[in-house]
Specification:
13 strands, 263 residues, Jelly Rolls, six-stranded mixed beta sheet, alpha+beta, globular, 7 helices
Length: 263
């Protein structure tokens, strides 16, 4: 169920996040702000919206953007309220940049990065990214977020989401304890435990944000539309690991209900 406005998520929407692993927020930031950000990204990649003959690659990646427009988009009052509701008040860092940006262009070429995966969150100093890790306490990541800076319809390479897959990943991570599992270990079976999950698409107009559980399984896809898709997929960073002295956040509740844990 999309959420619009600035009054926070309802109890049913928070439960939807716990059950499905994500919530969609419409009008999380303004269309004008989205336009400013697109203009900056066009300048960053050295291409133009009026010269489609120069769009020769299926995807161009920008690591991060930290200009005022992007910081404002990530820190609107309605998003801060939602961060508090899903992660816990005072338990997250306000974003000071956004990234990465997989800018996708209409193309007949395969993008080469469209496999199902989860976003791991620590051990990233290892040069082999398949050795990067995640653990059942989601060390290093409070949320996965999808910021739409352009209108994204079903043909515009929307991110594919396996609803409820976060619960399966929580159970898979549990035996690995604090050390966590590597991306290689998590992906060894092709995420077979989530293959029967219903698939949703991260569509919406510019200014839409999807706030996702860190363990949500998702995938890119080819762009079959007409206009480039501008989207950021940053983490929301936690201030600390889960604190058993504090009431569990919805992120924690989803893990606990999947695994029967007490933290």
């Amino acid at each position: 169920m999309p959420r619009t406005g600035s009054f926070g998520l309802t109890a049913s929407q928070v439960q939807e996040f716990i059950d499905d692993g994500f919530i969609r927020i419409d009008n999380a930031f303004s269309d004008n702000l989205a336009r400013q950000c697109r203009d900056e990204l066009w300048a960053r990649i050295g291409l133009s919206p009026g010269e489609p003959e120069t769009w020769t690659k299926p995807v161009i990646r920008v690591d991060f953007m930290a200009s005022p427009a992007f910081i404002e988009a990530a820190n609107t009052p309605c998003l801060h309220t939602a961060y508090d509701q899903l992660v816990g008040e005072g338990r997250w860092f306000a974003p000071r940049a956004l990234g990465t940006f997989p800018i996708r262009f209409p193309s007949q070429q395969a993008p080469g990065d469209d496999g199902w995966h989860v976003d791991v969150s620590f051990g990233t100093d290892d040069p082999d990214f398949m050795e990067w890790r995640a653990n059942v306490k989601s060390r290093g990541r409070a949320l996965l977020m999808l910021f739409l800076f352009s209108d994204v319809g079903p043909d515009d390479a929307p991110t594919k989401i396996r609803k409820g897959s976060h619960a399966s990943i929580a159970r898979k991570l549990l035996p690995f304890g604090e050390a966590g599992a590597t991306l290689r270990q998590l992906s060894a079976d092709g995420y077979a435990s989530t293959q029967d999950c219903e698939i949703d698409l991260a569509t919406g107009v510019a200014g839409t944000v999807y706030l996702c559980h860190p363990f949500l399984v998702h995938a890119a896809q080819s762009h079959r539309g007409n206009q480039p898709r501008f989207m950021a997929q940053p983490p929301l960073l936690p201030r600390s690991e889960f604190d058993p002295a504090l009431p569990p956040s919805p992120v924690q509740v989803a893990i606990r209900s999947a695994c029967g844990l007490t933290f």
